[in-house]
Write a structure and sequence with these properties.
By secondary structure, chain A is an all-alpha fold. Chain A has 2 domains: about 260 residues, MetI-like (MetI-like fold, Orthogonal Bundle), CATH 1.10.3720; about 240 residues, MetI-like fold. In chain A, about 75% of the residues lie in helices and about 0% in strands. In chain A, α13 packs antiparallel against α21. The longest helix of chain B has 17 residues. Chain C is about 35% helix and about 20% strand. In chain C, strands 3, 4, 5, 6, 7, 8, 11, 12 and 13 form a 9-stranded mixed beta sheet that branches. Chain C has a two-stranded parallel ribbon with strand order 1-2. In chain C, strands 9-10 form a two-stranded antiparallel ribbon. Chain C has 10 helices and 13 strands. The radius of gyration of chain C is 20 Å and the shape is globular. The longest helix of chain C has 20 residues. The chains are: A mainly alpha (about 525), B alpha/beta (about 230), C alpha+beta (about 300). Chains in contact: A-B, A-C. Chains A and C meet through α2 and α9 of A and β2, α2, α6 and α10 of C.
Chain lengths: ~525, ~230, ~300
């Protein structure tokens, strides 16, 4: 049947997969949550006792932390991107790669790293209820966004434009303001917007680093569920968070303007750095390097330090599964297979959504819709799934929670999969489809013989990316993970609330393992993707 | 005293661990209100020579204008205008803003810039295009705007680096004459760099060849070339 | 059996039971006491296990009201709740002090009121009742002691530079100034059973303030809809046996309910229980808990 189906039919079938998945695991739970927020009662006949004041405080804290985090990110990131991209110099690519590495780390790893820094190295980060540590951790993550977004804009600036401006009488100040800034303005705006969004959805960081003194909307939802068992209150907060994020997204997308074209046909000229520039380069890079290096190094050292000095004991305990490492070792296995399944699910959905959009322009909205879960944050996804599906369906048995956990991870990973697959698919010249058709290939055969082979590398890369995201997922997992079999991130956080140097060391070892898992998957995904471009 | 540009023993080196000379021991002069063409094959260092005079790349040797050391001032105060090979118009500015850029740098207010901009656009035959985005211009139009932009702040010396090489052959011929007429009408002193001997004959009254970074001695103009005196 | 994260029993005691009864027992830690009850409530009727241990009197009513528990009380029980929970152990949540920090110039505090005195400003660390069960016990104790005046008490405490942490282990292992930990706070919220661990060379370094104690009782029960109800009942009964009850102090730092169990001698000397611990019945706790927690957060965290 497929072999002779028309493009429209194949597209419809392909689109049905992501649509069904989103409808069941995203839209329906959100609707139930919304209704629960508006009128529903919680478990055991309680009504919500949350106060509007508390909601207001949480909302303001969320926005305040996001602003401060974005500010610090720009303060540290802009000099760094200037130092890396304004002039060519040997090794800049390597330094840039190292500075963007934090971005792939799971939030729990970063939270634990900064916790360790706060305890061992810089106690001042714990002042004011730990807010400096949170802001520093936010900047840690998002410097990578600035480097990745503003870097290309800066390095595509043709030095000859600068020379032209100089010959027209522009002093260095004028050159910066009238020539360089307009070229990067849009990228800086985009980076700020993305950073602000990431900062507003940094549940794991605030939970671990803020103790209970700092409440953002997401941690407030968590407290509502765990301390008060107030499902309706959690639903209300989740909805407010979702609306807030959508609002921020709309506002920031209005602020970023369209790109300027180029007037030259040759690739931009860049100047190599000279000895004179080295002081400026080092000065511009130092804050970023310190910000990135200190937490990671401290985390690794802490994982190797037991109660009596340097040792591999924590890692051995993980391997053998005894003592504090017992639950962690088990959770590694749990996380691995959950993430693999979630990655496959996410990739399947991503492939279907991308294929449908490519085959039939009417299906473009399907591809755009997959971004939904990312747009509302993983905590909202977790709360919605809990209230919308897990609790009502609990009589269906244990396996429902596992299915929902996989669904949550897949929902969060799918938008990134689509972002990798879509350009790869777009890169295939549409005339190839026409050529294949004139040679007798039906739409189905076109998919099998023209599209699939060209997409193999992109799909591999997407699976790796989805795996990395799924294995580090925390915001939704904390609400859905089965108590007896936690995922690695949730197990690490649970260990943190137990006393003793051994537990912290075990948690650190677990965090290092988690970082390696996610990081390796990301690196593999990145390398495969670069091969596609080549 | 020699008026205009005087170059003596100019050296330009490529950056790197072992220095290589782009230009070695160049010596020539361009009196005020005259013009010079530097002709040579690609890679002969003629563009580097121009950029060194403008101050965009570093150099050693004597470089003076009306006897004053040019090297005492950075590029943006040197009063040397450059028309780059592919125009190098600022993509984020309109035609009018591009042409008026040098005037803006001089501190002129928008009202005062407008009339000069208009004057120059007329000079290059593109009146009324002030508001157009530069990304919509054709190649020939771009080069003419680039010329207008360079001339607007009345630089004492205009350097043209292969101004026509990015254009089609037939356009080149026509534009070469036009550019020369514009420069004459503007009362400029200029040096044009090109690899095309015929183009050089049209665009300047003197000619020097550049080979492997060395500037050959003055060549008399071939008598068959038709040209108005500057 | 679902348990909380602090659960521990010696392996030989467990294997002895498994051998004699033929029942294979797996203990699944679920989180702290509050999380345990929440998970029960969320999965009521479709339980995650067969039996549960670790529900304490501050959350007992919520567990009962959720319908997650089956009707069963062990025959040997000394205390029960609503016919569904059997008391297994108890402890007192009291302020502990670092003995070295107090002398004739600065006498040790004795009562709740003492903590408001200016000489103890900035010396007290407690854990947040929203996230910590001993913190909740303290909140309830002040509620029982001061009635409606409890809010003023906490305002005064807050104004006396009170330190609030997220959990008991942050308070005890990081903040406490006892020789083993070296923190900055000599007055911390902990248990009556904590001092024996701080005995160095036969001398105690800490003591509990027995006038500030709140009685916490921990219960076990059978889950409604369990797959193995009979085995679950057997396990609950076993927890009242002398073997388990005598192992409780060393494993979990709690007192056994059974009068025939043996208690370590250091406990008799260094961990005396209060004669009159503060107690509130579970139904009242359930009715007031959420309001108390929210009001507390506004007063102490938000500064109202």
């Amino acid at each position: 049947m497929f072999k002779n189906a028309s493009r429209g039919t194949v597209a419809a079938f392909a689109a049905a997969v992501p649509v069904a998945f989103l409808a069941v695991f995203f839209v329906w739970p959100l609707l139930v949550t919304a209704r629960s927020a508006i009128d529903g009662a919680g478990i055991a006949g309680q009504d919500t006792t949350i106060s509007v004041r508390a909601l207001g405080v949480a909302a303001i804290t969320t926005l305040g932390l996001a602003s401060a985090g974005t500010g610090l990110t720009l303060i540290i990131g802009l000099p760094a991107v200037w130092a890396l991209n304004r002039r060519r110099w040997r090794g800049s690519r390597l330094v840039a790669a190292l500075l963007t590495a934090p971005f792939v780390l799971p939030t729990v790893v970063v939270a634990l790293a900064f916790l360790t820094v706060r305890r061992d190295v810089m106690p001042f980060l714990g002042a004011w209820h730990g807010i400096p540590a949170i802001i520093a951790a936010l900047a840690f993550f998002n410097v990578a966004v600035v480097l990745r977004t503003v870097g290309p804009a800066l390095s595509s600036l043709d030095e000859r434009l600068v020379a032209a401006a100089q010959t027209l009488g522009a002093s260095p100040r004028h050159v910066t303001m009238r020539i360089i800034w307009p070229a990067v303005r849009r990228a800086v705006g985009g980076a700020s917007a993305v950073t602000f969004l990431f900062c507003s959805t940094s549940f794991g960081l605030v939970l671990v680093l803020g103790g209970t003194r700092v409440q953002t909307l997401e941690t407030a939802a968590y407290i509502e569920l765990t301390a008060f068992l107030d499902l309706r209150g959690a639903a209300i907060i989740a909805l407010i968070q979702a609306c807030l994020i959508v609002l921020v997204t709309i506002v920031t997308s209005r602020l970023t303007r369209r790109p300027v074209g180029s007037t030259t046909q040759t690739s931009p000229v860049r100047i190599a750095a000279t000895r004179k520039n080295s002081f400026g380069i080092i000065a511009g890079l130092s804050p970023a390097v310190v910000l990135v290096a200190v937490p990671m190094v401290t985390l690794v050292i802490r994982s190797l330090t037991g109660a009596h000095g340097a040792t591999f004991a924590s890692y051995r305990a993980l391997w053998q599964g005894d003592g504090a490492g017992a639950s962690l070792g088990q959770s590694i296995v749990t996380s691995l297979w959950l993430a693999v399944v979630a990655a496959v699910v996410a990739s399947t959905i991503g492939v279907c959504a991308t294929a449908a959009a490519a085959l039939d322009p009417r299906a473009r909205w399907v591809r755009a819709a997959t971004v939904g879960p990312l747009a509302v944050s993983s905590v909202v996804v977790g709360v919605a799934l809990l209230i919308g599906l897990a609790v009502p369906l609990r009589s269906w048995g244990q396996s429902t929670t596992v299915v929902l956990l996989i669904a949550a991870q897949a929902l969060v990973a799918t938008p990134l999969v689509v972002r990798v697959l879509a350009p790869a698919l777009d890169a295939i010249d549409p005339r190839q489809y026409a050529a294949a058709a004139t040679l007798g290939a039906s739409p189905f055969k076109v998919v099998v013989h023209v599209i699939a082979p060209r997409m193999r590398a992109a799909i591999t890369s997407a699976i790796g990316l989805a795996f990395a995201v799924a294995v580090g997922e925390f915001g939704a997992s904390v609400f859905l993970a089965r108590p007896g079999s936690p995922t690695l991130p949730t197990a690490i956080v649970r260990l943190l609330s137990k006393p003793g140097a051994d537990n912290i060391a075990a948690a650190s070892a677990g965090a290092v393992v988690l970082a390696l898992l996610a990081g390796t998957a990301m690196i593999v995904a990145d390398m495969t993707r670069k091969e596609v471009r080549r | 005293m020699t008026t205009g540009l005087a170059v003596r023993g100019l050296n330009v080196t490529y950056p790197g661990s072992t220095p290589r000379f782009a230009v070695r021991d160049a010596t020539f002069s361009v009196p005020t209100n005259s013009s010079l063409a530097l002709v040579g094959p690609s890679g002969s260092g003629k563009s580097s020579l121009l950029l060194a005079i403008a101050g965009v790349v570093p150099s050693t040797g004597a470089l003076t204008w009306d006897g004053e050391d040019l090297r005492a001032v950075p590029t943006y105060r040197r009063g040397v205008g450059v028309v780059f090979q592919d125009g190098q118009l600022f993509p984020h500015l309109s035609v009018g803003d591009n042409v008026g850029f040098g005037l803006e740098m001089l501190g002129l207010r928008p009202r005062d810039r407008a009339s000069r901009v208009q004057e120059l656009l007329e000079l290059v035959g593109l009146s009324g295009t002030e508001k157009r985005p530069v990304t919509e211009l054709s190649g020939g139009e771009r080069q003419r705007i680039a010329l207008a932009r360079t001339l607007a702040p009345r630089p004492r010396l205009v350097l043209l680096d292969e101004p026509l090489s990015s254009l089609d052959a037939d356009l080149r011929v026509r534009l070469a004459v036009e550019v020369r007429e514009v420069l004459v009408a503007a009362g400029a002193t200029w040096i044009v760099v090109t690899h095309d001997r015929a183009e050089a004959d049209v665009m300047a009254s003197q000619l020097l060849t550049v080979v492997d970074g060395r500037v050959a001695k003055r060549h008399p103009r071939p008598s068959s070339a038709p040209l108005k005196a500057p | 059996m679902l348990v909380h994260d602090s659960f521990a029993l010696p392996d030989d005691v467990i294997s002895q039971f498994e051998a004699s009864s033929g029942i294979d027992v797996t203990f699944t830690p679920v989180g702290d006491a509050g999380t345990l009850v929440n998970q029960l409530a969320l999965s009521a009727g479709a339980p995650l296990g067969d039996a549960v241990y670790g529900i304490d009197n501050t959350f007992a009513s919520r567990a009962v009201a959720s319908g997650a528990l089956a009707e069963y009380v062990s025959p040997g029980a000394t205390d029960s709740v609503s016919g569904e929970l059997t008391a297994i152990d108890y402890s007192d949540v009291c302020f502990n002090i670092d003995l070295a920090a107090f002398d004739s110039t600065l006498p040790a505090p004795v009562s709740f009121d003492d903590l408001l005195k200016p000489e103890y400003a900035g010396l007290v660390s407690v854990s947040n009742p929203t996230t910590s069960s001993p913190g909740l016990a303290l909140l309830l104790a002040t509620y029982a002691t001061y009635g409606d005046g409890w809010e003023d008490y906490w305002r005064a405490l807050r104004d006396n530079d009170l330190e609030v942490t997220a959990g008991w282990s942050d308070t005890y292992f990081v903040d406490f100034s006892a020789p083993n930990y070296g923190g900055d706070f000599p007055i911390v919220l902990s248990y009556a059973s904590s001092p024996p661990s701080e005995v160095i060379d036969g001398s105690p370094t800490t003591a509990a303030l027995l006038d500030t104690c709140f009685r916490q009782v921990e219960y076990a029960g059978v889950l409604e809809g369990a797959a193995n109800p009979t085995a679950a009942q057997a396990v609950v009964d076993w927890m009242l046996s002398d073997e388990v009850q005598s192992a409780l102090p060393d494993s979990m730092y709690v007192y056994p309910v059974s009068p025939t169990a043996s208690i370590p001698s250091e406990w008799l000397e260094y961990a005396p229980l209060s004669d009159q611990p503060i107690m509130i019945d579970p139904a009242t706790i359930d009715a007031e808990r959420d309001t108390l927690l929210r009001a507390w957060t506004e007063i102490v965290i938000d500064g109202q």
